[in-house]
Amino acid sequence: MSGKDRIEIFPSRMAQTIMKARLKGAQTGRNLLKKKSDALTLRFRQILKKIIETKMLMGEVMREAAFSLAEAKFTAGDFSTTVIQNVNKAQWNYWWNWLPCRLPLLLWMKPLR
Questions:
Q1: Spatial CB neighbours of 97, under 8 Å, sequence gap ≥ 6
Q2: Any coiled-coil ranges, and where (predicted)?
Q3: What average pLDDT does the segment 96-100 reach?
Q4: Mean pLDDT for the chain?
Q5: How far is CA 52 from the centre of its chain?
Q6: Cα separations (Å) of 94 from 1, 4, 54?
């Protein structure tokens, strides 16, 4: 530890009281930061778990959708032009996240709280 890292202080009872108060404040601040870090880590893991579950569900849904599309094409032939002509507007809804960006969200999805 070099000399410039040390706090110059006159040894007295008042200086001891001041240093104890500074130490207590530093310990409280560190504990608050640790709690905040733990809460953010927990939230990150919850979001990560939700992402993994959603990806697994998406795989199943895409498999069913591909099978349904193949079945519909086999039954009705090429119907892509009919679908394109009957669409009026996109089915997207935008909601604000706590980040400074807009995230696209399908109307049937619920925001993560």
A1: 103
A2: none
A3: 53
A4: 82
A5: 13
A6: 54, 54, 19
